[in-house]
Amino acid sequence: MNVFSIGFDEERKLEFFSPFVPIKFKGESDYRFISCDPTAKPIGSLILEFINLDLNNKVKTKKFIFEYLLGYYMLEYCHFGQQLEYKLCFSKKELNFYIEDAYLELQEELKDLQEDFISSINHIFSGVEYLIKKNHQEGNYHTDYSDCFLAELYATLHEYSEDILVDFDLPTYCYLPCLSEDDDPIDANVELAFSSETFGNILFIALRKLIFQKNILILRCQYCHDYFIPESLHYQKYCNKVHKNGKTCKSLGALVTYKNKLKNDPILKKYNSRYSSLASNASNYPDNPLAVKRFDDYKQKGSQMRQLYLEDKISKEEFETWIENTRIKKQNNK
Question: Which residues touch 294 (CB under 8 Å, ≥6 apart)?
Fold first, then answer.
């Protein structure tokens, strides 16, 4: 029995993953195992969810096992056989017992699997920043990197490319409506699906299909350290994950970068020192219009110059020269 299946709507860039999991039907108190109806998610969602899973977090790992892997564990390790589908019922207490056992049994297996895929993704997409910058400098904004990525995929994860079945007539995908992430019904335009007995093989297919999409990259956020797919074929340091304070990694990461640069950059230290000196003069001599004007001018123009420097639109020398030119030059006595 193939526990996992996944299909793809290439036109809308959606994937439909269907694991074999416990479901509690309406009006029943117990759970039965079925191949659940797939939910439409953007292509790449499954692989990102797995490689970003914190396997040292027991609660999150057990939740992942319950949602995706418990049926696999029951068949592979508990040997329930074909009667597990629909025929056997389990109480919540019994399921919790099997989830705990599955966590203990699968933890190391999942860590090895995650390490393999993270290592492969790092290898596949290493050097992408250099390639993108090089092509953009040459005016080439539409390079397709998929062939290069695909060769690296098979070189690093070939062991997961076997024992995968192709199904050309899977009614779950071809004829029945699916649900989006917002529970809105959509008609799946999937011509075929892939199925396998192992989760690693399904991850391989998911990553392979992602790589076949043009202008798709997997990068690692330098703030939260999760992997993400940028919205365009441009190298990005940060993802758009929203944190509890309502701010995104992009805004928080930029702030951290600025603070680090401020702490270590001698030109920014000189800029701030000059700002403090002019502010002090304006405060101590409020009746001196020249002191007040010099501070107001520095505050307004300095903010613009600092931003240009932070965005690498002016050089360090240009910024430093501007700061020095705000000082009153002493005239030599003749």
Answer: 278, 281, 282, 326
